[in-house]
Amino acid sequence: MSSSNLDKVFMAQRLPLLRTLVRMVKNPSIAEELVQDTYLRVAHTLSLHKVDHLEPFLFQTGRNLALDHLRHVRMRSRTLLEDVPANVLLDVASEAPSPEEGHQAKQLLERLGTALERLTPRQQRIFVLSRLHGCSYTEIAEQLGVSSSTVQKELKLIMAICIGVLSRFEEQS
Question: Taking the CA atoms of the chain, what radius of gyration do you get in angstroms?
Fold first, then answer.
């Protein structure tokens, strides 16, 4: 079977295969990796053997890889917990913040929120596009109809405001 035929079948079945694997592993990122691994595994097998029914073979390979992944995760978690004595597990510090740390973080977020509300609508949009959506200066400039230099200067000002809020908060704490 040719690689072009595999490509054609894979592209036609990629989304149904992805949905199947997401249901199995309950993680879209891992399922996406398993879809890619499936393609590579099937392509390798096709280079060695003839496969008469490619579509079912593709799905079975994907399911097998998902099952292998789930077995590996189960074994790893079981091994890690069973290898550690119970008294050691009880002495491990919690990663959760203390009530005081949680309260301080809430206060800092409120102050940052207040500072960001005082920004102009354009500055707020620049902040959201840059820090929350990960857009580049050029992308933001195109969306807002300004120069990249303007975006850079505005973002520098916004970050200075945020750093000032953080500094004052730390001084008070």
Answer: 26
Q: Token pair of 124, please?
A: 């707020």
Question: How far, in Å, CA of 9 to CA of 33, rounded?
Answer: 18
CATH hierarchy code of domain 3-82: 1.10.1740
Q: H helices of 49-120, where?
A: 54-82, 86-91, 99-117
- pLDDT tens by residue, the chain, 173 residues: 566 789 999 999 999 999 999 999 999 999 999 999 999 999 999 988 888 899 999 999 999 999 999 998 887 776 665 666 666 656 666 677 778 888 888 898 899 899 999 999 999 999 999 888 888 999 999 999 999 999 999 999 999 998 999 889 888 87
What is the distance between the alpha carbons of residues 71 and 43, in angstroms, rounded to a whole number? 24
**CATH of the domain spanning 99-172, picked from 3.60.21.10, 3.40.50.300, 2.60.40.1910, 1.10.10.10:** 1.10.10.10
Residue among 95, 82, 42 nearest 64 (CA): 42
What is d(CA 90, CA 84) in angstroms, rounded to the nearest whole number? 10
